[in-house]
Every structure is written in structure tokens, then in C-alpha cells.
Amino acid sequence: MSDATKDAGRPGEGTRAVRAGLPEPVKHEPTLPGPVFAAHFHLPGEAAGPYLYGRDENPTWTLLERAIGELEAPGRNDVETLVFASGMAAISSVLFSQLRAGDAVVLPADGYQVLPLVGAQLEAYGIEVRTAPTGGDGQLAVLDGARLLWLESPSNPGLDVCDIRRLVAAAHERGALVAVDNTLATPLGQRPLELGADFSVASGTKQLTGHGDVLLGYVAGRDAEAMAAVRRWRKIVGAISGPMEAWLAHRSIATLQLRVDRQNATALAIAEALRRRPEVSGLRYPGLPDDPAHGIAAQQMRRYGSVVSFTLPTRTRAERFLGALRLVEDATSFGGVRSTAERRRRWGGDAVPEGFIRMSVGAEDPEDLIADVLRALDESAD
Hints:
Elements: H1 13-19, H2 59-72, E1 80-84, H3 87-98, E2 104-108, H4 115-124, E3 128-132, E4 148-152, H5 164-173, E5 177-181, E6 199-203, E7 217-221, H6 224-237, H7 243-253, H8 256-274, E8 281-284, H9 294-300, E9 307-311, H10 315-324, E10 329-330, E11 340-343, E12 356-360, H11 366-379
Parallel strand pairs: 2-3, 2-4, 4-5, 5-6, 10-11
Antiparallel strand pairs: 1-7, 6-7, 8-9, 9-12, 11-12
Helix pairs in contact: 2-7, 3-6, 8-11, 10-11
């Protein structure tokens, strides 16, 4: 990894994660105040101040937004963070607040499977949608004249990586904004704003919160005017996080470094074990030295993520493999402390082979997970 996990002159990542967003200590008050359940607040006189109505602001959001901002852009005071009800709410807020009829947007052709649905809606509003693959910086070829470039690196589920710095420079030279979906990397794996992006967007449902019990999204951005438009979109559509979800997310961030370090190390170990299996093809994990994306990933990522993807020969073999696993749940999503895996083609939205498996590595003991995966491969053989 290109950057040290401890930045010069600043606390280490574990310290930041544990203390991110906490209020100043007050005697007899909890270190992390409980969720504030309020649709309205006392508001005599003029309608002014930080908390006016529950759709606009909430003290629990404020602490969580501060925490995420401290991880996405440590040491910076010019970055604003807004939390949303889900990752798709966060993604939509950037796309629909920044684009107008007649604009063009560049999306990854191999990104999250809901992006084509978003693209169809954008086209219905008179916005030109262009797509190109993540790998090889393919989006460069269709960038001219675009208003917004949307990057997803690593891509989900194929785990391709693009050169964010290069693409950001090219986009800015052409007058385009850049948003990076940072879901798979998390702020401890990659900091898009430091790589020059205008927005860092993520689903906090995944590894950021890491327990599979919260739906959440967020947008962090450097430009005050652009973020004001994102905030206005959140107000208009009401895509707000519940206070309980926001509080659970903040609580969970305290263990983020512990979780990602364990899960990333185990993901690499599982990828190394899978590369020795003859029935496995198309193995991808950016942390593998011989992965096609490793060179670029090593330049811009601090950690490589908890997801490993690979292909088994047939749909039937993949389904037998999933059924034989004992420690890995057959479920969608990724980043949780409990390992999951699924055959992605079952959703129909990803251009992957029938036997393609996306595996999310959890926090179980590495040797137990590796043994479970290898045993399931053996038992699922023809």
C-alpha cells in the first residue's frame, strides 16, 4: 500500500475511528449521546439555528456526519458530509442534484447493478448517459463534453480498478465534476477527496457499519455550492436516515479499523488459497500481486477490501459450492463481520458468468474460513 496507516502529525486510523465525531466531554453525560428522536424542536421566534425540523437536521446525524468526515478527509475543515437513508439515496442525490436536461454523465459499464436503472431515469429527464468499463481507465474515451464523471473503484462485483488521479485530472481539465463510489474500499482503504475527486459517495450499509443491520449512505464533498445542492435534494425527497440507524452506524465506526484489518488480511489469504484450485477461474482481488489491478490499486489504496470474486465452471457447480459452505452465508451485500457469498448472476443485472461468485470475507478465524471454502470446493466437485 502506498500510504502509511498513520499520517504525519495526526492520530492513527484506529484512534480516529474510535474517537471520530465524539462531542466534547461533559460531566455525567455519555461519551456518545443516544439517538435523538425528534420530528420537531422548540423554536420560538425566528426560524434560525442548527435544528429546526427533523427532515432537515438531527443532532445524531451531525455527530455521524462529523465522524465520517474525519475519516474521509482527516485534518481538513473544508469538507462537508451528509448522511442518507441508503447508499442509493446518496448516489441519487449527487446525480440528480448536479445534472440537468442536456447534460451528459459518464457511468461505469461494470458498476453496481442498480446504476442502469438510474441511467434510464436520467435519460428520461433528458440527460445523456454514456458508459465505459472501469478497467484500463475506459471512461476516458467518452469523457469529452460530460458534466459529471462517476467512478466506482474497485468496481462491484468485478473488482476492476481505475486510476482515480488520472481520471480526475482529465475530467477537471474538461470542466467535469467527479464522484467516486468508495463503498468497497471504505475511507480506511481509499480517500477519493485526497485523490482529487469532488465527491466521495458510499453505502454505509456495507463495511463502514459492518454488522448487516443498518441501511445508510453518505456523500462527502469539498465544494460548498455543490454540497448545498446535494443537501437541497435530500430535503426535497426526504431521503433521511433514522436517528437509530445513524446512532448504530456511529457506534459501529469505532471498530472499523479492527474489522477492516482482519477482513482484508483474511480476504488476501482466501484469494491465495483459491488461486491454487484448478476449478477456479477469473480470480480477482486487488491485493494479489499478480491481479491485473494491483499496480494501480497499490498507488491509491491503503487497504484492498474484503471482497474476493471468482468463477466456478457452471451454475450448478457454483450452487453446490454455496450450499456446501458452513461458515459462509448465501446472502447478498458485503462487508459484514459474518462472511457471505452469492452467485451474482441470479440477480440478472451483472454481466458475469453463470458460475461467478462474489465472496465477502468476514471476521471469522482465517484458518476456519479457508478450511470451509476448500472443503466446500471439494464436496461440490462433479
